Amino acid sequence: EHPVTLKHLSTHTSGLPSISLIKTIMNRFDKKTYRDPYCLFDVQEAITYLSRVSPGRVGKVFRYSNEGMGLLGRYLAQKLGTDLEKALLKFICQPLGMQDTTIRLSLDQRNRLVPGYAGKDVNQPELAMKVFEGAGALRSTVTDMLRFLSVYLGIYADHPMNKSFYITQQEHISQGKNFGVGLGWIIDKRNR
User: Fold this and answer.
1) Mean pLDDT of residues grouped by 10 in the chain (192 residues)?
2) Other beta carbons less than 10 A from residue 51's beta carbon
């Protein structure tokens, strides 16, 4: 049995490193391998790393990992027999009535996309997560995000997804008196 579990990936305790100066420098010289922004590893590198991580490193230390969340998304979609976008639409967006949340934008959605900026008057192209979509490829509207938050925070107490959301909010990993980790969420204990 492999020491890295889905819970480790969702709580950022899989052992995948978060930042590596050496890997960042190596990636600058590797122009052949596509890497998602903010992801140091490609899929095969991340899988290889996890296959070699010692059981003693797993589940111990929180290290934020986009690759871990990306692998989690890929794995869950694969287990559901689909891609991540279809899985998210079927199991989250449609039940919540989030009609304007997706990974691949329609022409209408693309025309409404707010451009990004990297400083004053410096346009920034949209973030394209092609490999690790689970690390941040979703696009949404404020209306859909507020709909999600309303159910997530329990404002609609009788919504069928409340129990699932409640599980993600629980502290699964404690990192001291001020900091905990839920499933995909960082918990600031100081402010509840």
Assistant:
1) 89 84 78 81 88 86 91 95 96 95 95 88 86 94 95 89 91 89 91 70
2) 9
Which tokens is 55 given? 């059981």
- Check: CB of residue 67 under 8 Å from CB of residue 20: no
DSSP, collapsed to helix, strand or coil, labels residue 143 as helix
- Residues 142, 140: Cα–Cα separation, whole Å: 7
**Which domains are delineated in the chain?**
6-112+124-191 (3.40.710.10)
Q: Residue with structure tokens 């100081």?
A: 190
Strands 173-174 and 123-124 come out as: unpaired
Nearest to 64 by CA among 128, 132, 11: 11
